[in-house]
Amino acid sequence: MAKKQRFRDTKQKRETKINTVEKPLIPFATSGIKAKAFLTDVFMLLMPLFYLSIYVVFDGLEDVSVHRVEAWAYAMVPFLLILTIFMFKDEGRTPGARAQSLKVIDFHTLGKPSLFSIVFRNFSLLFSIFIPIFWLIPFFRKDKRMLHDFLSATCVIADPNPPKEKVFKAK
């Protein structure tokens, strides 16, 4: 039995099943909103941890000026662990992402990312942050994904159904 030739269908302007594959429309978040969410996370979570590392672990700014890498490590490792816990427990949301109605999803399944991909995404975030050439990647792509999104197969979307905030009423 001969295989159906696709070029004849194209030549005669008939659609084939191969040409009609539809991809789901994903509401990717813009770079500006993702930057707002990241800055919110940095100022809510990282800065207090950095101040703790300066004044609790070290003896102040003079000691930190000698041990800069260690001071940042004492702040960044708990920061990444806290981000991982938030993302895993709150369906891909950090406090900054929740404030901006963003959500991290698995790129292939469009569901909640696995714990491994969340951990890998957060630790590869360090390379995306500290090497400025990687900041340009989202400006050349439609989906606005950064390096750590590619490596972990995740993406940040504008959440169509943000969680409702619980309102406590005074008696």
Structure description:
- The chain crosses the membrane at residues 38-58, 70-88, 118-137.
- It comes from uncultured Sulfurovum sp.
- It is found in: Cell membrane.
- The protein is mostly helical.
- It has one domain.
- It is built from 7 helices and 2 strands.
- The chain has helices at 6-11, 31-57, 61-66, 68-89, 95-99, 115-130, 147-152, and strands at 102-106, 154-158.
- It is globular and about 80 Å long.
- The termini are far apart.
Beta-strand percentage? 5-15%
**Mean model confidence by pLDDT:** 84
Low-confidence stretches: none
The total beta strand count reads: 2
What is the number of domains?
1
Order of helices and strands: HHHHHEHHE
What profile does the largest beta sheet have? 2 strands, antiparallel
Class from secondary-structure proportions: mainly alpha
Provide the helix percentage: 40-55%
How are strands sequenced across the largest beta sheet? Answer: 1-2
Q: Radius of gyration in whole Å, from Cα?
A: 22 Å
Q: What is the 3D shape?
A: globular
Note the gap between the termini: 79 Å
How many helical stretches? Answer: 7
